[in-house]
Amino acid sequence: MMTSVGFLGCGKIGKEMVRHLRAQADHSVAFVQSPNFVDDFDLGCPVVRQLDESICQADLVVECATADVLKQHSEFYLRNSDMLVFSVTAFSDEAFAQRAQSLCQAHGTHLYIPHGAILGLDGICDARPLLKSVTIDTIKSPASLGRSDRERQVVYEGPTRGACVEYPRNVNVHAAVAIAGMGFDDTKSRIISDPAVTTNSHAICIEGDGISFRLEISSTASGGITGRYTPVSACGSLDRVLGGGEFRFV
Ligand SMILES: NC(=O)c1ccc[n+]([C@@H]2O[C@H](COP(=O)([O-])OP(=O)(O)OC[C@H]3O[C@@H](n4cnc5c(N)ncnc54)[C@H](O)[C@@H]3O)[C@@H](O)[C@H]2O)c1
């Protein structure tokens, strides 16, 4: 079945998915909502600078803007469309997370969380009954974190909820792991700023009843906040949502 896909935000990650969709005949791009999107693709669909309720209609809306943009627009979109959401730190706001769940339940829509810059969310989710501790260390360059440190230093250590407040654009993977596993208060985050690195790297340590997992993921930082892997993994997540098999949050 042909599915129409809209984009809320369309920068580094969004453009890769638009390119991916355009290479297939199975699904269509319904609209792009973004204040500065330049249509190099000749999409032939409406491009709007801000929400236009009569135009922004699609079976699935992919959010790849910011956590604030997601929060501002989910009230409309979750009434009408399923959503695949990249700005996962938004759900560290408990009131917003509950509202999003209520909207999905009331309107029969679904909210999908991609694995994004890491992998293994499905396995973490499956291990929930056994989990005793989940910790994530992220190492990024100061520029990527919006800082100007000249020496390596720990810039955050504590519950994932606080990391999402302090670094909302950098710890979406922490938020995704928290949702999949032990929640925002019981998952522990550490963020390290290191001027020597040219990668975004994440080390996830999971201990539980009879289990011990270590995941180490590193991706070249190619400018901006998003590393090499996420735009590529986003296309796989989109395919699985369109085919019905991605990790479902609500
Ligand atoms: N889940 C993950 O693992 C993961 C990994 C990397 C990035 N991210 C997140 O994904 C999101 C997108 O990342 P990116 O690298 O593509 O960012 P980007 O900066 O390249 O693109 C963001 C886009 O959002 C648009 N935008 C800004 N304000 C908007 C508004 N009011 N309405 C609509 N669009 C608006 C911008 O114009 C831009 O095109 C960010 O929130 C980022 O933190 C998540």
TrEMBL record:
Transmembrane segments: none annotated. GO terms for molecular function: aspartate dehydrogenase [NAD(P)+] activity; NADP binding. Its EC number is 1.4.1.21. The keyword Glycoprotein does not apply. Residues 9-114 form the Aspartate/homoserine dehydrogenase NAD-binding domain. Keywords: Oxidoreductase. Residues 151-223 form the Aspartate dehydrogenase domain. GO terms for biological process: NAD+ biosynthetic process. The keyword Transcription does not apply. Belongs to the L-aspartate dehydrogenase family. This is L-aspartate dehydrogenase. The gene is nadX.
